Amino acid sequence: MVRSLLPLGVALFGAASVLAQNPPTCSLDKKCPEEAPCCSQYNQCGVGAFCLGGCDPRMSFSLDSCVPAPVCEDKVYKMNTLDNYKDISEYLGDPDTADWVGQGEPLLYDGNVLLTMPPKSVGTVLATTRYMWYGNVKAKLKTSRGAGVVTAFILFSDVKDEIDYEFVGVDLETAQTNYYFQGIPNCADSVAIQDDNSGNITDLSNTYDNFHEYEIQWTPDEIKWLVDGKVGRTKKRSETWNETSNQWAFPQTPSRVQISIWPGGAETNAEGTINWAGGKIDWNSDEIKNFGYYFATFSEVTVECYKTNSPPGTNKGVSYYYNNIAGTNDTVVDSNKPTVLKSLLGTGTDMDKGGDNSTDAAETSGVHNVPGGSSSPANVPGSGSNSGGSDSGSSGSSSSGSTQSCDTKSFSQNCGSSGTSGNSNDGVRGADRTLGASAFAVIIGIAGLLFL
Ligand SMILES: *[C@@H]1O[C@H](CO)[C@@H](O)[C@H](O)[C@H]1NC(C)=O
Ligand SMILES: *[C@@H]1O[C@H](CO)[C@@H](O)[C@H](O)[C@H]1NC(C)=O
Ligand SMILES: *[C@@H]1O[C@H](CO)[C@@H](O)[C@H](O)[C@H]1NC(C)=O
Ligand SMILES: *[C@@H]1O[C@H](CO)[C@@H](O)[C@H](O)[C@H]1NC(C)=O
């Protein structure tokens, strides 16, 4: 059995009935239309944030629809502040304005960042604003726990190369590892052959109670996964030749670091995903009663860029872009192209759009600019809507309406609070929140893609 868990699907928490129109979906065979040219990480078309981190040039209207991606920078991301975090609805592509962009509810607690998943939500995802083209990345984290609750620390490229750590909340002694080339699972020729994209690192001391340091060392020749400095798994490029496609099925393109908590056990997910995640999520668990949400704890993320003078893997310029739809390492250009949009109406081919007063907002009515929905920028009517990542067969539409007392139009944080009221600890942790009115009704992309 081969299973791939890609953060592909998206769901808008409860708002689908209010905001009717879903963004068009995109795939290799179905590129985005000209008016919504950018294919997001979750395979939906739009402008603005759809054209920034995660934009897949192969599925977008044209190769240059996506905005070039900021190059790697060596950095220690201390997770003791949220000052360096922006909701994706507030980020225009300048990595000097934010280290992380995301959706959901990250909170500061006790000197760490908690990624939280309140009842019936789809959790929280953060991605670095800069990309790594090979290199080392490590995260000190404590996982979440509970059936159906998944914590992830991954590298994910715009063409869907992926290197993962994933933790399911019913097994607190195992780090599951995966890698994918362009999101293609290694199916081998027989179902009898075990999926070798995946591998487990076992016998860890309780991953919920203890910080461990999870590391990915990625070079053009191999991937190493290390826990607390000890190599737990190695995958060599030389083992990944695909004779059908005549290429290495090995991750090779600039990737963002993504950290997340998400509901693998959401009722609406595919059965295989729910089983993998350890069963359906219990929204009345002790964890929810005690804290008001499930959570994973991050204390530090460190990125060391790959050091080389010639491609692949350079970090000399300002940004990376792709010059060919193949999406392989030799099609990545380390360039000096700018990365910043003037507004969330912009795209890679019109980066200044909306920057002056000439743009009639009505013109973009119905065009989405924040994947997954989010608090919509005031100037874009109709944004922020969408629902389930219906493409990809995934069940990203994990959270189904549960906004009972909420005005689904407002996407306000209060909406979330009312949902979790009565939790004594919620207030304590909530007090540290620095995110003002970021969207509760937000979503993350998530998905269990199941291949049997
Ligand atoms: C090889 O590549 C083809 C085309 O992308 C893909 O369909 C197939 O599953 C791959 N084979 C293996 C063993 O990964
Ligand atoms: C990894 O461990 C999980 C249980 O935590 C198991 O379901 C899965 O099959 C294992 N994967 C591999 C590749 O051994
Ligand atoms: C980079 O791409 C070239 C051309 O497709 C290929 O020969 C080379 O093996 C690739 N290197 C890696 C690390 O994938
Ligand atoms: C845009 O409009 C605002 C207020 O209506 C005005 O202050 C500003 O000068 C205008 N900017 C441009 C570039 O026209």
Automatic annotation (TrEMBL):
Broad enzyme group: hydrolase
GO molecular function: endochitinase activity; glycosyltransferase activity
Swiss-Prot/TrEMBL catalytic activity: Random endo-hydrolysis of N-acetyl-beta-D-glucosaminide (1->4)-beta-linkages in chitin and chitodextrins
Residues making up the signal peptide according to the UniProt record: 1-20
Listed InterPro entries: Beta-glucanase-like (IPR000757), CHR-like (IPR017168), ConA-like_dom_sf (IPR013320), Glycosyl_Hydrlase_16 (IPR050546)
Pfam families cross-referenced by the UniProt entry: Glyco_hydro_16 (PF00722)
Gene3D superfamilies on file: 2.60.120.200
Entry's Gene Ontology BP terms: carbohydrate metabolic process; fungal-type cell wall organization
Region described as Disordered: spans on this chain: 344-429
UniProt-annotated location(s): Membrane
UniProt-listed Enzyme Commission number(s): 3.2.-.-
Similarity remark: Belongs to the glycosyl hydrolase 16 family. CRH1 subfamily.
Task performed by this protein: Dual chitinase/transglycosylase that plays a role in cell wall architecture. Chitinase and transglycosylase activities are coupled. Required for the polysaccharide cross-linking at the septa and the cell wall. More specifically, transfers chitin to 1,6-beta-glucan in the cell wall.
Protein name: Crh-like protein
Organism: Canariomyces notabilis
Phylogenetic classification of the source organism: Eukaryota, Fungi, Dikarya, Ascomycota, Pezizomycotina
